[in-house]
Each structure stands twice: as C-alpha cells, then as structure tokens.
Amino acid sequence: MCAVRIDRHHEDQPRPPVLNALILVTLVTIVVACWYLGDYYLGSAGERTRWFAPSPFCDVLAGSCHTRLGQQGSLVTRLESAPQRVRVSVTIDGLDTRAVEAQLEGRSVYTGEQEIRLQQVAPHRYAGTLPMASCERDSHSWRLRIRVEDRAGVRLGSWYDFDSPCQ
Question: Where are the transmembrane segments (predicted)?
C-alpha cells in the first residue's frame, strides 16, 4: 500500500475578513426573515386586517362599488358627498358581522384620519357620516377604508380612492 501525504497547509488558511463579514450578514438576514415570518404567521395576525382590492374602474361617488372579500363574502359601498362631510353606506353579504368601521384620510393634502364605527340601519346594512376637511384647492383626493370584523374576530377590508370637488 502506498501512503498518501496530504498537504494541510492550504486547508488551514483563515478565510478572508470580507468573506467572514458576508457570512455574518447572511446569517443575520436569515434570522430576521425567520423572526418576521414567525411573527406574521403565528404572532398577532388576529389584529391585522386582510385587504381586498375593489372592483376595477370603481367610482364610489358615481354609484356603488362592489368588492369581493375573498371566499368570505362581499360588500357594496356607496358615498354621498356633501359640503365638509361624506355619508357612507355599506351593504354586506355572506358575513356574520360584529362591527363595520370607516376611515377617511386625505391623499392630496394631509388632513389626518377620521374614523367612525358605522351603525347598523337594517339587516346587513351599515351607515355613518364622516367629516371632511375644508378645501384649499379645486378638489381634494381622499381614501376611504372600510373594515369589517366578523363574529370570529377576522378583519377584512377594502379601500376606495376618490376626488371630491370643493364647493
């Protein structure tokens, strides 16, 4: 048998410092990603709202907008704009609803966020009035968010962007 001599001189060389730094950055990134995914899927997910996009070409001021809330149900939203306020009407189908909230926020100018809990006016129908900030331009851009909470505590929602002419 022939003995093979292994030259360990090349194996014992330390890694370059840049490679060590890249390994450390990669490990930190993996740990942060695992923490984030764990918190997202196992943490406080019950406090979050699952958002669904409204139907395309929806103009909530021109008429009603229909939004499917996944497999859970749907909602139909109508707005009636008046000077410095907007009346919100929501009809919900397919959900056993505990609460419905509406939130209005200015997009073109920061006006803060106005939020109310809509009142049930009929079975599966909710309504309320939100104040709008006074106008400083020809029109303002707004975003209305509707959040629905069912009896199991699941929160679903949609949003509607619209422009309101100043009067």
Answer: 18-38
